[in-house]
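Hey, resending since the last one bounced:
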Amino acid sequence: MKVWMRQILASILVNSIYEMKNYPVVLLNTVLSPLSLLLLITFVSRGSLIGVGIEGGFIMSMFQSGMSLQTDLSHLKNDFKIQDMVVSSPTSPAAYVFGMSVAEIIYSIPALAVLIVLAAIYIHPDALQALGMLAVLLLMFLASIMIGYTLSTFSSDIVQSYAFSRLISTLFSTLPPVYYPITYIPMPFRDVAYLSPTTYAAELTQNMTGFLQLPGIDLTYAWVVLIVVTVVLSYVGLRKARWREV
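The structure tokens again:
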């Protein structure tokens, strides 16, 4: 256990503490990315969607944190050959990826802290609602982590990794109805929105806090979709990721 903890701590130091200490300007992106859309939605809706926008900010932050793992792992693998050293060491893939994942959460603390304060002011979630939202966000984070990890093992260039990371983040956290209720989308186009798992995550959090009313069958379906997507992505990541063939 002590060896595992040291391996995780090393990943955190390499992937978040070093950058946060030496290049604090990079933290601006993690804060501005979710908050910029929140401000836009708030202004356009004249404040009526601020609560929904805050929940969307949480979803976007967690999903983008997971996708950031792709570029970070690709950078360390291709530019510094760190994964080669990890593969030849006693460190397991699970310890390495878990530590890097925790580092992504630490890296996102400034944005999450701002969103937590805003949620306390404008949403007032009780303990049960907060736990439900946390469960949804963790599922989204785990799903994005597995996407990022799998793609990073196939990526051969950091530029390629950035392109895929931005594309997937846009498709999953910006275009779907994350910052606003899905009821704002005309009926013929809602089926397209449901192709993204973040749509179900947004529906669940909005329902928990009273911004959207869903029947029980739809709630159950949304939970099932999120869980199944996360399990499938985890299976694909564990089975198809190229850990040693790098």
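The mean pLDDT is 84.

Sorry for the duplicate.
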